[in-house]
Specification:
Layout (H helix, E strand, L loop, with lengths): L1 E9 L3 E10 L2 E6 L10 E4 L4 E4 L1 E6 L19 H5 L3 E6 L10 H14 L2 E7 L12 H7 L3 E8 L9 H18 L4 E6 L7 H8 L8 E4 L5 H12 L4 E4 L8 H10 L7 E4 L5 E5 L5 E6 L4 H11 L5 H6 L3 H7 L15 E4 L5 E6 L2 E5 L2 E2 L9
Parallel strand pairs: 1-4, 1-5, 6-7, 7-8, 8-9, 9-10, 10-11, 12-13
Antiparallel strand pairs: 1-2, 2-3, 5-16, 14-15, 16-17, 17-18, 18-19
Bound molecules: zinc ion (ZN).
Zinc ion binds next to loops.
Length: 381
Amino acid sequence: MKLVKNANILAPEAIGVRDMLVGGGKILAIEPKIHLSGTDLEVIDANGLTLVPGLIDQHVHVTGAGGQQGFASMTPPVELGALVACGTTTVVGLLGTDSTTRDLRSLYAKVRALDQEGITAYMLTGSFVYPPVTITGTLRGDMLFIDKVLGCKIAISDDRSSFPTAGELARLVADLHVAGMLSGKGGILHVHLGALDTGMKVLLELVERYHLPARRLSPTHVGRAPELFDEAIRFALAGGMIDISTGGTRFDEPYKQVLLALQRGVPISRLTFSSDGNAGVVKRDAAGNVLDYHRAPLGKNLEQVIKLITDGGLSPSDAFRLVTSNPADNLSLSCKGRIFAGADADFCLFDEHFSPRHLFARGEAITRDGVILKKGNFENA
Ligand SMILES: [Zn+2]
């Protein structure tokens, strides 16, 4: 067991300086003072440190992505060390444009590998295309029989999508709605929004005209362009959650987009950040020639949360919601993203500059004093 002493806890709501007891991968108790001793009790002095739920990143290309400039432009798989270095303890892996050379079976294997290496990983079935690719042959089958599957991904308004109609999307949402009920899982349709000017009008139609439950839809990359962001705000005001990518194309810094949404009346509970980490990014010169390839970084979520606090004037408690309790709610993960007795013991201890000092996932130390203790099995090979 571990006893964390005198941590300033953001659960993510501020609950003050508390002691926290951890055992069996779970948070066992949170009290003003916990007095315990014993040879197998490790005491962690958290004096002056802020304890926050382990970060959730709900959009990461864990098996790699890219490939749009040919095979040599495919990004490699993510490694555990890169995820935990940014305070992430829960990750959702998904496919991107390519579901031909990459597939859901290898995504499932990678998700299980990350789990075995120490964090918690989930996945979405589907990819960019319609009808969605699946493992079992049907969307409902994947949702019901594969524990790791929390929902389905699809792309719209993108020249790489299958241009699904409103009716086709409605049937997917209805399918996920039933599958979500039957499996007791989230059952969301995570919708990649591309650069075409059709934006997310079809999603607004599904909610406003067909009265499909907005909570089943999870639009992402909403900050790509101002017009798209206007539609996203309308969607959020109608009850949906919108996901702002901290990597990739966007019209302004993600933290400024959050401030804009708040100004326009969107409750903070409807906003999430995700990194789009490990997506393929291509740098070009003015003539369009490729200069270099790199992977979308994983650390932008934390960077933007800190900017919300330092530049945006948000309380740390509110700012951290975008990467803790809000994505947990979007994904219906009841034991993640919050600090309470009974939750999974995923937490990060930050210093006064919000630099991650210690990270714990399911009660096990992953980083200590900023040094990664647990790397992926092949990271140094
Ligand atoms: Zn992506």
